[in-house]
Specification:
Elements: H1 3-31, H2 42-67, H3 94-109
Helix pairs in contact: 1-2, 2-3
Amino acid sequence: MNIFTVAPAVTYAALFIGLLFIYFPGRLLTWSGIAWPEPKGALQIEGMIVGGVGTIIARWCIFAFVFVGKGTPTPFDPPRQLVIRGPYRFVRNPMYIGAALVLAGLAIFYDRY
């Protein structure tokens, strides 16, 4: 595995997960006037756990593309081999499941479901 395959995947993961699931929702909540939630303890912990599981699934998908498919999830550097190992062994597109879990974790954390 060379650096030219791993570096774009890590960059993609940081930008995709960081911008789409952390920065943009935070900005939207701030602009809409929704403040940081009052500490409720168990509800925020549950949201962090659900979001964390989603993040782990998304990262697992990205690294399956890198190490098994020899590419990245981005359209400009697609995998060179079909990826049917890891989370792709069970579901056709587990990245959607990871993204949905992250968004559900954010909704639970902010008590907006």
